[in-house]
Amino acid sequence: MYEITKGDIARGRKLLAGAIAAPIALTAIPAIITLLLMLLAPFAPPTAVIVLFLGIVMTCIGFLAGMFTMGLLIHKRTKWTKEMREKIAADGIRAEEIGWFMNELKSSEKRALKAVEARDLLLADAYKETLASRLTATRIVRSSKRELSLAKRRQNSLKQLKSARADEFREQISVDIEKISNINEEAKVMLSEAEARLQMIEAAASRGGNLADSELALKKLSARPKNSLCTRIC
Question: What is the pTM of this model?
Fold first, then answer.
């Protein structure tokens, strides 16, 4: 189970801070230097014009360099965020890790989560747990579908292969296809159950119910274990 470290958080903050500071710093430094030279140095008018012109040019160059650096750091942070999500999701997404996957939530789910949190914290915990299951199931469905497509492609390629071990290879791939298909079907069932539980929690929150009265505790306890599926596909 991957645990987010302080070093991971620090790296993300540094990349974000660098992206924000780069255009400001690289633009401000030549501008400030030019301003100080104009105010403190006794330049003759022709020299002052040249200094001002060079200062404006360097400021523009600094701004462009800052924007380029910002774009580079944002790209690195986006890549880092994606890598972190994959590491976190490898063993199943947990409720406390939902914040890393907000961009994968539907707009309706974001609104519902905010509304449930405002009404009942226990319901909000159940909703986050179910969202984590939904996200995990969605990822498994997507990845198993991709693996299934690749396996079928390999199977079609082997049909034209004439080799002493061709039959053995085809049999192995057939077994793989069956396993992946089973995982895909189980993930779809898990996804349907998670979506149904989300609707139940939203309904309970909208009518002012609580976790015990709506029997969501039992639903939460009987939720299909997501880690087993995720381990098999990841």
Answer: 0.70
